[in-house]
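USER: Fancy drafting a protein?

ASSISTANT:
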Amino acid sequence: MSVHQAVVIGCGGQGQAHANGYAREERARLTAVCDPVPSRAEDLASKYPGVHALTDAVATLREYRPEIVSICTPTALHPMLVEAAIKAGARAIHCEKPMAQTYGEARRMHEMAMRAGTILTICHQRRFEVWYRTTRDMIREKTIGELVSMEAYTSNLLDMGTHWFDLLLFFVNDRKADWVMGQIDGSANREAFGVPVETNALSFVHWPDGVTATLLTGRAPQTPVLNKLCPRGFVIHGEQGRIEMDWPKFVVHRFGQPDLTPEIGRVDAVAASISDLIDCLENGSEPELASVRALHATELIFATYESSRRRSRIILPLEIDDSPFLSGLRDGMWMPQGPVESAYG
C-alpha cells in the first residue's frame, strides 16, 4: 500500500479538519503544517507525532515536496498557493472554498492544474454528508415525483453560497445551468474571511430542462432569518411533494401520503473528501470535488453579481474575469455604510 506525503497550509479551523482527515487515512502521512502565526502551526503540529511546524508556505512546499497539499488559507491566497504547489510537484491539491476572489482567478486555477496534470479539488465537502446525499438520492428516485424547483437560503454568496450552489448542482447531477438572473444589495460593510460580500442577494438559476433554483442570502436585520435554529437550508419541490431541510429538521412531504422523516447519520465529511481524493490519485478517476465542478458553482456566484451589475439576465457560460461586486465597490456602484461586520453575525 502506498503512503502519500501531505502538507497542510493554514492552521485555522479548516486546517485542523484537514490535518485530522490525513491522520485518519492510513494511505496518507502528514509531514508538515504551515501558518504565518508560529503558535498556531506549533499547536497543530503537536497533535500529530513527527509533524513539523513552519511559517513560510512557499519554503515549506519547496522543502517537503509533498504529493498532496491542503490549502486552508484566506481566499485571496488561493491562486498563488495553488501555483506554488504545482511548481513544487504536487500531484493533488485540496483547496478550501471559495475558489478565489474573482471569476478569472478561479478559472485560471482550474486551467493551471489541468495543464500540469495535477488533481485540483475544492473542499465542497457537504457532498459527502448523509443529509445531502439522501436528498440527491430521493430526487433521483423520484420520491417526490419529477423535480420542479429548488429554494435555498444561507448567509452570503461567496463563502457559504459556494456550498449551496454546489449542492444545487449536486442535486441535478451536475447538469450545467443555462442562465442566471440576480440582484444584490451592498448597503452594509460585510466580509467573509477578509473578502467583502453583499449585504443580501437574490439569485435565480435556470436549467435547460426547465428546473429552477432560487438562492436568498443575508442575515438580520438586513434580511429576515428564515429559520430561527439554522440560517441556512433548502426546500426541494417536486410534482408529488417537497423535501424540507433546515437543521435539525428533515421532512419529506408527499401529497396524499404520510410524511417521511428519514434518520440522518453524521460523517466526517472533510475526512471523506480526503479519502476520495486519494482514491482518485491512485486509480485515475475524477474526484467528487473536482475543480471543474467547483468552477460551475463559482460561475453562478459571479453570474449573480454580474446580473446585478448589468441589470439583466446572464446567459452562461460567463465571460468575465473580475468580481462584479468588488469592481462595483471600487467604482461606487455600492457604497456600504457602518463598521465592518462578519458575514455570519
